[in-house]
Each structure stands twice: as C-alpha cells, then as structure tokens.
Specification:
By secondary structure, the protein is mainly alpha-helical. 56% of the residues lie in helices and 10% in strands. The chain starts with a helix and ends with a helix.
Length: 217
C-alpha cells in the first residue's frame, strides 16, 4: 500500500463516521483535595471532554470516601480532612447551579477548584470565574441545600462503592478494565466505545497511519 492509498483510506474512514450516535453517560466520583482526583481531572478529564463533549453526558460527584454523621445533621467526615468536606460541598453547590452550563464549562470550573483548592479554603474565586453568584453558593453551603446535595452525592457514591478515588462509570456501570485504562488514557478508553465519533476516528486513523508509515520504512 503506497502513501496515497493510506491517505485515501484515512479520509474515507473519517468521513464515514461523522454521525453522532447515542451519548455515553460518564460519571466521575472524586474528592476535592485528592491528589489522584486532581491529576485525573486536569490531565485526563478536561482535555477529553474538550474533544468529546458532543458525544458524552457528564456527571460530577464530589464526595469520594467521605461519610455523613447523623444523616448530615452533624456534618461529614472526609478522607483528607475537614477542608475537603468544605471543598466537596462548595463544588456540589456550584455544580447544582450550573445545569444550563455545558460540560466543558463545568469541567473548567472543577479544574479551577482542583488546581487551586479554593473552595476547600473558603475562597470562592473559582465560583466567581464560572460566572456564578458567590453569595448564592455561600448561602447554599452555610444555610441552604449544601447538606442535602452532599447526602445525595453520598447515596450516588454508595451505589458504586469505590475502592479507589477517582472512580468512573460509563452508562451507569463500573468496569475495572475501563477504570484502569481511564486513569492513564481516558480519551482512548472512551473512543473504544465511540468509534463513530469524529475525534475518535481521527485519533485511530492517525495511529494507524503512523503504524503503516513506520512499517513502510
């Protein structure tokens, strides 16, 4: 196969998979001060969502290995301390007010929180950067529905019972193979289920083209 045939094959494959099919439901269970969560969100989730936002529906669940005390009446205990509990609740409150935002915008907000740990410090500048009302989010945490939101996140997390944070599910199901691969290459992991998606077709064709060119030498 010469280079012109390879190029033609690549173009044909890409052009044949432009149709957007059913979206994947991607859920991320994470913690606001977890180093593994931070690394995953900044290095894997954010760039992947930027490429695949037309093909996935994202749910972000900031709770992890925390637990409620007396159904939240006496607060929560979190893996990385009380500041993480605050960070989890700030993010839950902010995300609950972002229903009309795109997944790209939601992840950008969460990435800001994970990188700066702002919410965990009681600083709402990431909230403000996301064009949300800091007063509204502060009220949610102090006197509003913050506890209820965290109890719901606790319930969602309990249905998965994660042994490692962050944990991901696809279409509501946990798969250890997907979980392990997603930690190092989320884009390729999702593309294995989204072969019809244009960004995935381009990625796979680029890989195939590189392979053929190397073996042509």
């Amino acid at each position: 196969m010469d280079i012109s045939e390879i190029f033609l094959l690549t173009v044909l494959v890409i052009s044949s998979v432009n149709t957007i099919g059913p979206k994947l439901r991607l859920t991320i269970y994470y913690e606001s001060e977890c180093p593994d969560s931070e690394r995953f969100i900044l290095e894997q989730l954010q760039p992947t969502v930027q490429q695949l936002h037309n093909y996935i529906t994202l749910q972000l669940v900031p709770f992890g290995k925390a637990r409620s005390i007396n159904y939240g009446k006496d607060g929560f205990v979190c893996q990385h301390g009380s500041s993480e509990c605050l960070g989890n609740m700030v993010q839950d409150c902010a995300l609950s007010r972002m229903k009309q935002y795109t997944d790209v915008m939601k992840v950008a907000y969460v990435a800001c929180e994970m990188e700066t740990r702002s919410g965990a410090k009681g600083d709402l500048h990431c909230v403000q950067n996301a064009k949300l009302s800091p007063k509204d989010v502060e009220d949610c945490v102090l006197i509003g529905d913050g506890t209820t939101l965290q109890l719901h996140s606790e319930y969602l997390t309990s249905t998965v019972r994660p042994s490692f944070i962050p944990t991901i599910t696809v279409n509501g199901e946990f798969d250890q193979h997907i979980q392990d691969n997603a930690q190092v290459d989320l884009l390729s992991t999702l593309c294995s289920k989204l072969k019809e998606a244009e960004p995935c077709a381009k990625r796979f064709n680029s890989m195939a083209l590189n392979y053929l060119l190397i073996n042509e030498r």
